[in-house]
Predict the structure of Biotin/lipoyl-binding carrier protein.
Amino acid sequence: MAEEIRAEMVANVMSVVVAEGGRVADGDTLVILESMKMEIPVLTEVEGTVTKMAVSEGDVVQSGDLIAVVG
């Protein structure tokens, strides 16, 4: 079953750490967001393959926006 990872706040995407097709484990960083001059890592809570990366570096995400899908 795929898990959708969504933004929890308004932020800028500083860095995309894992590309589509990459394998991740529980606790791995997918992207790093920047909000109010703080770096916030977005972690996965499941093991699997990133089937969709919905953001790119420089994007602005709103609360609830899709960041990635891990299946």
In short: The chain has no helices and eight strands. The beta strands are 3-6, 11-16, 23-24, 29-35, 38-43, 48-53, 60-61, 66-70. Residues 22 and 50 are 5 Å apart (CA to CA). The longest strand covers residues 29-35.
